């Protein structure tokens, strides 16, 4: 892709480098960060993107990794039929994990790492603002950990999905502030929008914690927050995005194992599938009330 748009191109495969494996992809998740980058025009030259992928090894120069092995490919060029992946960016799949769930192990890993950053030991309830894909994954993970989660979401259908994922309540944003006149101890923002971030901040109690899980890349990532309301709360604000490659690979492994055991199964939230030829449509910015919860490219 480039500043001028998205093109499907054919490139010759080169020799696989030592310590790498060539993976024929089966699925690639469409990430909101890619959609936002395209919509904002921040990509200035030709680039290959996509980082949520799985498939089957077709050629390997990694000792002990054989052709035919199903893997998560933690790549940066995954909107493609094949990717070459270094040894430390590959996770071999549990037999019970589908390649669809494996492709979505990266966003699940982000959620696993995010929740581990929060001070939940003495928390009786968590309020989560936003029931998009990342928010729903967080609801499911927290519910499996035994936490009571209240979801705040304007779209009725997504509130219903959140309840099915394990939330104990699902409220409309217009009614939530009256439910928490003094705020609450832990609030997770998972909207990626300025309005969602402001609402989440308003819900935090004095001395509470605001965890920012939403990926704020629209409008070049610029946000204005209501500091007059934030200033007197002594609240902790945590960015819940962690990019330690070593930790990400560990969390990706945990994510695919969880899917294999029927824990966090991200494919349950996928509601749109596209072929590679439709990648431009899949990567187009769409208003939230008409956008899929999660779209996936399929190469099978």
Descriptive labels:
10 helices; 7-stranded mixed β-sheet; 6-stranded parallel β-sheet; 29% helix; Rossmann fold; alpha/beta; Quinone Oxidoreductase, Chain A, domain 1; 300 residues
- How many H/I helices? 10
Low-confidence stretches are none
User: Per CATH, which architecture of the largest domain?
Assistant: Alpha-Beta Complex
Structural class: alpha/beta
How many domains make up the coordinates?
Answer: 2
CA radius of gyration is: 20 Å
> Could you give the order of the helices and strands?
EHEEEEHHEHEHEHEHEHEHEHE
Shape: globular
**Main beta sheet:** 7 strands, mixed
- The CATH topology name of the largest domain reads Quinone Oxidoreductase, Chain A, domain 1
Name of the CATH class of the largest domain: Alpha Beta
Mean pLDDT over all positions? 92
Helix content: 25-40%
Number of strands: 13
The span between the termini is: 22 Å
The CATH superfamily of the largest domain is Medium-chain alcohol dehydrogenases, catalytic domain
Q: In what range is the share of β-strand residues?
A: 15-25%
Explain the overall architecture:
Strands 1, 2, 3, 4, 5, 12 and 13 form a seven-stranded mixed beta sheet that branches. A six-stranded parallel beta sheet has the order 8-7-6-9-10-11, with helices on both faces. Helix 4 (133-144) links the parallel strand 6 and strand 7 (149-152). 29% of the residues lie in helices and 23% in strands. With 300 residues, the protein is of the alpha/beta class. It folds into two domains: 20-105 and 244-298, Medium-chain alcohol dehydrogenases, catalytic domain (Quinone Oxidoreductase, Chain A, domain 1); 118-239, Rossmann fold. It has helices at 32-40, 99-103, 105-116, 133-144, 156-165, 173-179, 194-202, 227-230, 245-260, 279-282; strands at residues 20-29, 53-60, 70-73, 82-86, 90-92, 126-129, 149-152, 169-171, 184-189, 204-212, 236-239, 272-275, 295-298.
């Amino acid at each position: 892709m480039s500043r001028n748009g998205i093109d499907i191109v054919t490139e010759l495969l080169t020799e696989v480098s030592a310590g790498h494996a060539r993976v024929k992809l089966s699925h690639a998740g469409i990430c909101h960060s890619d959609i936002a980058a395209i919509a904002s025009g921040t990509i200035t030259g030709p680039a290959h993107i996509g980082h949520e992928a799985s498939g089957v090894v077709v050629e390997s120069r990694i000792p002990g990794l054989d052709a035919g092995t199903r893997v998560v490919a933690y790549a940066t060029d995954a909107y493609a039929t094949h990717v070459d992946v270094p040894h430390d960016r590959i996770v071999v799949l549990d037999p019970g994990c589908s390649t669809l769930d494996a492709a979505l192990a990266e966003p699940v890993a982000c959620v696993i790492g995010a929740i581990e950053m929060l001070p939940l030991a003495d928390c009786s309830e968590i309020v989560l603002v936003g029931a998009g894909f990342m928010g729903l994954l967080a609801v499911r993970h927290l519910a499996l950990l035994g936490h009571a989660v209240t979801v705040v979401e304007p779209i009725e259908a997504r509130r219903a999905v959140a309840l099915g994922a394990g939330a104990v309540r699902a409220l409309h944003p217009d009614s939530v502030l009256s439910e928490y006149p003094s705020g609450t101890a832990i609030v997770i923002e998972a909207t990626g929008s300025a309005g969602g971030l402001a609402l989440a901040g308003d819900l935090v109690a004095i001395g509470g914690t605001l965890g920012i899980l939403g990926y704020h890349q629209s409008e070049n990532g610029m946000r204005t927050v209501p500091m007059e309301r934030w200033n007197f709360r002594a609240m902790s604000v945590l960015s819940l995005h962690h990019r330690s490659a070593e930790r990400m690979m560990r969390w990706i492994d945990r994510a695919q194992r969880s899917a294999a055991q029927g824990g966090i199964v991200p494919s349950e939230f996928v509601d749109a599938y596209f072929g590679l030829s439709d990648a431009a449509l899949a990567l187009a910015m769409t208003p939230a009330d008409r956008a899929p919860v999660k779209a996936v490219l399929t190469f099978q």
